[in-house]
Design a protein that fits this description.
With 483 residues, the chain is of the alpha+beta class. Helices cover 17% and strands 19% of the residues. The strands form seven sheets. The chain has a four-stranded antiparallel β-sheet. β10 (214-222) and β11 form a beta hairpin.
């Protein structure tokens, strides 16, 4: 017996109306043929201060043995997708914007706190219709210029006085930034499906409805004594929120790295001036750990998404480059050993192509003693400055001797966000590019070095990348470069 489908006129009208609300060709005009469904395309605007590194192929590493240390770097043919990359290393000025944001966030929280007068206008808990919303800070309300007594106490609460010199200083220990990152890759793994029947596609295996899946989740909180407590907890999978990781990071750079990195040297001037003095605004930020660099990326993402509106769902988050992405970008379109097209670090006229330590230890021969302003040397063919020398740069990749040999050849990556309780050897991250204190051998694009994720250095900085919203196209709106 044939089944007859009947559709009432109101239901048919609703179906036609629904079809007209979505993109694509009208259903009545396709003659019953497969025409596909289209929608409004998204033209990704080029991020300010970033350049597009187009997708491509690279023989990563070098087969030539290093003449200085006798080391060989792992070699493999790899392919990477296109991405945006900062044209220079993150500067002191740019990192100060992050620090100031965290400072001003704390001040608004204090001003809204009943212990400091409780001005509720610094926090938004209702929308314009009076309906409750997730509490968030009101950035449209400026900090008081003529504070009353309670407001003055709030503003003064983030400063301390040096008991010896009497100098009033920002209390860096309070500058903690809390952020959350959803682990889409872990959530997408088939073994982490909430429905046991979806965890294995082999129909010869009967799913166990009582099977328990264990996942690791990063979390953090401030204890009663004001200390940051970071934990990685193992728990049974209960829902999608289990893949939301929470971090609290103190964001102020370690300015003492200038003293601790160089014993028996007088670097007090850099300790007191390098980050705080505006004369160094255009110099690369240093003394920033891998963990702080990741916090910066999270803040920058949040800062961006607030201004994008509905288009934000297509835009990828800022992050540190993978080791493969960094080398691919550094080599330029020619794939050279250095970011420039010569095998020497100087031109025929004796001009240096990068800021490093020439010869045995004449730091000043290239025109600089320590770091230099970003972007004063020529860019490589990708439009990127200082991909050799100045400061070495953090990547997101965990450091192993096997390197790329242990990775996939498509968008290679080994990622591991080590917990506090993990063995220290698991906290090594790959660092690339060499720095102002390194010899020429160390500034080659393929050279690999490492540092522990919680270790700040006076010669390590970073730059951000962002995956393309549409990797199949390289047509994007024009970008603006930093001057």
């Amino acid at each position: 017996m044939k089944r007859i489908l009947t559709i009432s006129l109101p239901l048919m009208a609703a179906a036609v109306l629904m079809a007209s609300c979505f993109g694509g060709k009208k259903a009545m005009a396709d003659g019953g043929e497969l025409t596909g469904s289209s929608g409004r395309s998204f033209a990704e605007p080029a991020p300010y201060g970033m350049v597009l590194v187009k997708r491509g192929h690279l023989k990563m590493g070098t087969e030539k043995q290093d003449s200085l240390w006798g080391k060989q770097t792992p070699v493999r043919d790899i392919s990477v997708d296109g991405f945006w990359m900062d044209d220079t290393e993150i500067t002191n000025s740019e990192y100060k914007q992050f620090v100031n944001y965290v400072r001003d966030s704390i001040l608004r929280e204090r001003l809204a706190d009943p212990n400091y007068g409780g001005d509720e206008t610094y926090k938004i808990e209702e929308d314009k219709n009076g309906d409750p919303v997730k509490p968030h800070l009101n950035w449209k309300k400026a900090l008081p210029k003529k504070p009353n007594e309670d407001e003055q106490r709030a503003l003064e609460s983030i400063y301390v006085v040096n008991p010896v010199t009497g100098e009033k200083m920002l209390d860096a220990s309070q500058l903690n930034y809390r952020y959350e990152v959803y682990d889409y890759q872990a959530a997408a793994l088939r073994r982490n499906r909430l429905n046991p029947e979806e965890r294995n596609l082999n129909t010869d295996i009967q799913p166990d409805p009582n099977e328990q899946v264990w996942i690791s989740k990063d979390t953090a909180y401030i204890d009663d004594e004001g200390h940051i407590v970071r934990e990685t907890i193992n728990r049974q999978l209960s829902g999608p929120w289990d893949f939301l990781n929470t971090y609290i990071i103190n964001v102020y750079p370690d300015t003492t790295c200038w003293v601790n990195d160089f014993p028996n040297a007088d670097n007090e001037m850099y300790l007191r001036n390098y980050f705080s003095n505006p004369a160094y605004n255009d110099y690369p930020v240093v003394g920033v750990t891998w963990e702080q660099a990741n916090a910066f990326c999270a803040w920058r993402t949040d800062y961006l998404l607030k201004g994008l509106g509905p288009a934000a769902r297509y835009v990828q988050r800022y992050r540190l480059p993978t080791e493969a992405e960094w080398e691919f970008a550094a080599r330029g379109v020619e794939g050279g050993e250095f970011p420039w097209d010569k095998m020497d670090a100087t031109s025929g006229e004796g001009c240096f192509f990068a800021n490093f330590k020439p010869e045995g230890g004449n730091y000043t021969k290239d025109g600089n003693l320590i770091t230099s302003k970003v972007g004063i040397y020529s860019a490589n063919s990708n439009g990127l400055f200082d991909m050799a020398g100045n400061v070495a740069e953090w990547t997101s990749t965990i450091y192993t001797e096997a390197g790329v040999e242990a990775m996939n050849d498509l968008n290679p990556q080994l990622a591991y966000n080590a917990a506090k309780e993990d063995p220290y050897r698991l906290k090594k991250k790959s660092v690339r590019g060499g720095s102002w204190k390194d010899p020429e051998s160390y500034i080659r694009a393929a050279w690999r070095s490492s540092e522990y994720q919680n270790q700040p250095r006076s010669y390590i900085g970073f730059r951000c990348v962002r995956s393309l919203a549409n990797s199949s196209s390289t047509k994007v709106k024009g970008s603006k470069k930093r001057k």
